Each structure stands twice: as C-alpha cells, then as structure tokens.
Amino acid sequence: MTTMESMLESINHRPQIRAVVFDMDGLMLNTEDVFELAGRQLLERRGLEMTDVIRHSMLGRRPVDAFNALKSHTGMTDRIEDLMYETRELFEAIAENSLATMPGLLDVLELIESRDLPRAVATSSPRAYMTPLLERFELLHRFHFTLTAEDVTHGKPHPEIYQMAASRLNVSPVEMLVLEDSETGTRAAHAAGAYIVSVPNRHTAIGDFSMSRLKIDSLLDQRLHDLLRFP
C-alpha cells in the first residue's frame, strides 16, 4: 500500500464527529494537581497517607462517591459533608496561585469552534464548583451546555451523563467525541457508545484505557487535532 493509499484509507475510516463533550477535572484544568495536595493535607491532619489505591478509587467520581471510597479505604469516621467542606477550603487556598488550563485546551476549543461543532461539558463535579472554575478562565460561555453531578442519578462509570449529553446534543453516541482523562470517565463514555479519546495525566495514567479509540499524552497531540480538523 502506498503512502497516499494509506492516507485515504485513514480518512475513509475516520468517524463522523458531530459533537464534542469534555470532562473537566484533569482534562480541561489541572485541578487534579490541586486535589492531590488538598487530599494529602486532609489525610495528614488525621495521621494518614494518600496512596495510589486511594487516589485511583476517587478519580472521576462524584464527590459523595469519591469520599465514600476514601472512608472505605482509610476507616475515617468523619461525616462526608464535613470532609467535603474541609477539602473545599484546602482546594481553594491551593488553587489561588496554581490553577491553570491544561496544555492544548485552547487550541482544541478553537478547532472545534472553527467547525461550529456543538460542545458540552460533562463532569462528575457539582455545579457550584464547576461554574466559577470555568468562568475564571472565560470558558463557560464557549459551551452550549454543561452537565454536572446534580443532573444525573448515577455517577460515572455509569453511562447516564454521556447518554444525556448525546440526547441533548441530538446526535448518536457514535458521532459524539468524548475527551476524558480517567478510567472511570472513559468507562462511562464507552458504555454510552461514544467515540473516546483518553488523555490520562500523571494522576490517572495507571488506569485501564483499553476501551478508548485513541489514547494520547496531551491535548496538543496532532492526531486529536486531525480528528477535529477534518469532517
């Protein structure tokens, strides 16, 4: 097969992407870095240590589910509401000087906007947490809608949030590109039937991403850009 034939075959097998859905934490913003520090401080106050097992059990889940996992692994007896409040205070103090967009995010958004593709955010985080973060970087208005923990009955890895996104975008899940950084979110998108590009970071890289159509190191990857650039 010639190089030209190979390129044509690649284009012919390219999915028809009619909408794009973003996870937020660790995918759009470096919030996982902030949460790592906040989580360590939370546990250190109780003489405990954050481990990869604990971190992996919490990643990509709604706060209630994440803190239930934390309590299960550590034996902590604190009320979930108290843990959430304390973590939020720690997060906000750390985020003040360290929060940033992930490399390549703005380039990807510009590509999507240049094709006028419908776009949404589907996060396991609460709306009261998501909104000020996206507004801080002037991102909220760049999406047609957002879905959060309050919008679903079942959190990721259940497919509900991505099924709901496809329905609201009025596209078949196979025509919906989902960008995820965690195994939990990737499993949710896979169960919904979406086309998944996983972008694990140093916090989530230990996960299983075998169900992804493409796994890349960052949003700067040219393969993602090519996928978005061509109809």
The biggest beta sheet, please?
6 strands, parallel
Strand content: 5-15%
Estimate the mean pLDDT confidence.
Answer: 92
CATH class of the largest domain reads Alpha Beta
Task: List low-pLDDT spans.
Answer: 3-12
* Main structural class: alpha/beta
Radius of gyration: 18 Å
Q: What series of H and E elements makes up the topology?
A: HEHHHHHEHEHEHEEH
CATH superfamily annotation of the largest domain: HAD superfamily/HAD-like
Task: Count up the domains.
Answer: 2
Structure explained in plain terms:
It is a single chain. The chain has 231 residues and is α/β, with parallel strands linked by helices. It folds into two domains: 3-30 and 100-229, Rossmann fold, CATH 3.40.50.1000; 32-98, Orthogonal Bundle (DNA polymerase, domain 1), CATH 1.10.150. The protein is built from ten helices and six strands; from the N terminus they run H-E-H-H-H-H-H-E-H-E-H-E-H-E-E-H. Strands 3-2-1-4-5-6 form a six-stranded parallel β-sheet, covered by helices on one side. Helix 9 links the parallel strand 4 (176-180) and strand 5 (195-198). Helix 2 crosses helix 5 (80-98). It is globular. The chain starts with a helix and ends with a helix. Residues 3-12 have low confidence and may be disordered.
